[in-house]
Give the backbone structure.
Amino acid sequence: MSIANGTFSLTCSKCDKQYDFTEEDTDFEATSMEEKLQGTEICHSWEHSFNCDNDKCNNEIEIEYKVWEYPVGAFNDDKVEISGGTEVGRFGYDFHGEPEN
């Protein structure tokens, strides 16, 4: 199940080259579940690292992207941490089906 839709974009902090990721580029996994007052809260996580492919750059870029679904089926919060780059735009989210473990 993919929870992401649209495009997530970032630029390299050394050379400003832009990278765009679609839902096909991600592998969000349900990494934690916690019972709360209105039901289950699910944290979906995606981590990715790569080197900038600009010939003269080769900067290492790391992404840690988390999305919380609470209650089930509803967006609650998201958090993106990027090392070696700057966020340009985030995904939209669509919660449907059962989470993958």
Summary: Residues 44 and 50 are 21 Å apart (CA to CA). Strands lie at 4-5, 7-12, 18-22, 29-36, 39-51, 60-69, 75-83, 85-89, 92-93. The chain has one domain: 4-93.
